[in-house]
Structures
1.
Amino acid sequence: RRAAAHLDSLGRLLAVAGWPAEAVTARRIRDDLLDRAPAEAVLPRTLRLQRRVGRSRTLDRLTRGIGTLSTADARAAGVSGPAARAGGDVPARYRRWLADAVDDVRRLDDVRRLDDGALLEPTAPGPMASPAPTALLDPTAQESPRGRWDAGRPPSVALVGLLPRLLEGTELAAARLVVAGLDPDPDELGASKREFAGG
C-alpha cells in the first residue's frame, strides 16, 4: 500500500506538471498494487516509470531548485519520511518516491516472520482477497507514505507547516509544484483537526 501511495503522490505531481500520460501510468500501477497484483507483474512497469520520470530532463528543468528543503530543516520541523530523506528540491522528492516505490514493490512477495513467529506469506491476488495481519496495519510500526505516524500529529501536519516558508516569493505555477511535491494528505489533516476539536 505504501508503494501505491507513493505512486498516487507521483501521479498528482505529474498531472500538475503537465505530463498526463505518465500520471495515468503511475495511477494504473497504483491500481494494480491496490488490487494486489504480484511483484512480477508490477515491478517491470514500475522500473520503466522510474527510468522515464527519473531521467526526464524536461521535468527536472521545470522543478529544479523549487521547494528546497534540507534533511536537517525537515527533521527540525518534525518532518519524516520521503520528504526528509530526499533532502533537496522537488526533483529529489519525486525521485525518492520512485525509489521507495520500487523498493516496496520488490518486497511484495517476501515471506517474513512476524514478531510472534508466525509466517507472513504474500496474499492472494485480487481486491481485498485476504486481510493483512494486524501487525502490518499498526501505523506506528512502519513509516507511512508521508512519514512516521504519530496519533497526536499526523505527518501531513508537519508537511503543511513547511509550506509558508517554501512558498514565500514563488510564482503560482511553482507553488503548485511545491505543494504537489510534498503531497500532504487532506484526510490526515482533517483527522488531526477532529482529534483536536474532540480533545
Note: Residues 2-109+148-198 form one domain.
2.
Amino acid sequence: MEYNFYKRTPETSSNLGISYDLGSLMHYGPTDFTKSYDSYTITSHDPRYQRTIGNRMGLSFKDSKMINTRYCSNICKRKLACQNGGYTDPNNCRQCRCPDGFGGTYCDQVPVGNVPSCGGLELDAGVDWQSIQSPNLTSNMRCYWRIRSPVGERLALYVQNISFPCRNACHNFVEVKYTHDKTLSGARFCCETDKKPFLSDNNEVLVILRTSAYVSNDYTGEIRRETYKKLGISFDKNYLNTRRQQLSENQFDDGTEAFVNRDFAHQLFESDIVLTSPQARSILNEIKRSLPLRPHSRTKGLKKRISRQIHPDPTLFWQSTRIPYRFSYDDRYWQESVRAGIRHVEQHTCFRFIENGTGRDYLRFDWARGCWSNIGRVGGGQLVSIGTGCDYLGIIAHEIGHAL
C-alpha cells in the first residue's frame, strides 16, 4: 500500500492552480489503507483539522471549482466581480458561486441560516470573552457567523461545549475558518474538545454550524480579540502529539469507500480506482522516478531525462458536459440513491447527466462489489460500481468525481 502515498507530479496530475483542501470529497479518509482500521494512517499537521479530512458529505467549494475550471469556464461570457474567492457560477451567470460562509450575489455577505436566530450575523469581537451559542438543534441546519476585530489584531477562540455524534470525519459539526484563505474547508469539531484557545491568522473568523439528517445536543463557543503583540500564532509540539494520540485511540468505520473495499483494496489503485493499462504504466514510471537512487546506480540522471515524457492525456477529458448514464441493476431505492448523488454533482457544476441518453461514451452504474470507478473518460460504457455500503450521497459523488 506504500505506493498510495507517493506524491503525484505534474506529469500525471494537475490541480489547475487550486490550493490543497483538507475537506475535499476526494481526500483519503484518516484510517484508509490500515490493516484493521483501528489507527490513523493520515494525520493533519494541525490536529484541529483531523476530523475535516475524509469528508463524504458532498463536494467542497474547491472540488466544484476544479471541475468548473476544467470544463465550464467558457459558459459565462461576462465574469462577475466576485469577492472572497468566489467565481461566476456556470449554473447562473448572474450570481457568484461562493465559499461556504459567504453569500449574496458577489459573496460579500454572511449567508442567512435556515433556522431562525441561528447565524447570518456579523459580530465585532471585544477584549472580553463573548459567547456564541446555537439554538436547539434540528436536522439539516445551516448557520453562519462572521466575527471581526480591528485590523492588526487576531481573534482568540475556543470551543467550550460541543456534543455531536463523534466520527472520524464529522457529519454534524461546528466548522471554524481561521486561516487567511477562507475558500478552504475549516477545522471541524464534533467530538470532545480540548478547550484550549487558538488564534486566527488575521482579523476575521467564520463559524459555520452544520447538521445532517440525524443530530442531537448543541454547541457553545467563546471568542475574543487579541493584539499581534500579545499573542503570536504557534503550535505546541507536545500538545499536538498528545492530541494526535488521543484522536487515534477511538477509531471506527470512517464512512469512506476505502473501508467498504477493505477486503480487496489491494486489487485497486488508491483503494477505489480501476486504472487502464496506459494509466498504470504512467503511474509505475512516476513511482520509479520518485524512489531514492542508490549510490553509483546506473539510473543516476534517469529522472532528469524522462521526467517530461509523461503528460496528462487530453483524450481522458469528457468532450461534452452532457453525459449519458444507464443502470445495470434494477432496484428502485438503489437507483434513487445514485440519482441523488448525480443531482448533487449537477447542483455544484455545469455537468448534466442524461438517464438512458444516447452516445458512444456513457457511465454505467452497477451494484457490483464495493465502490470504484475509472479515472476520466475511458470510452464506451464505463462502469461505476455502487455496491453494498456505497449507496451514500458523498461516496456516489466521490466515484462520479473520479470518472470526471
Note: The chain has a mean pLDDT of 82.
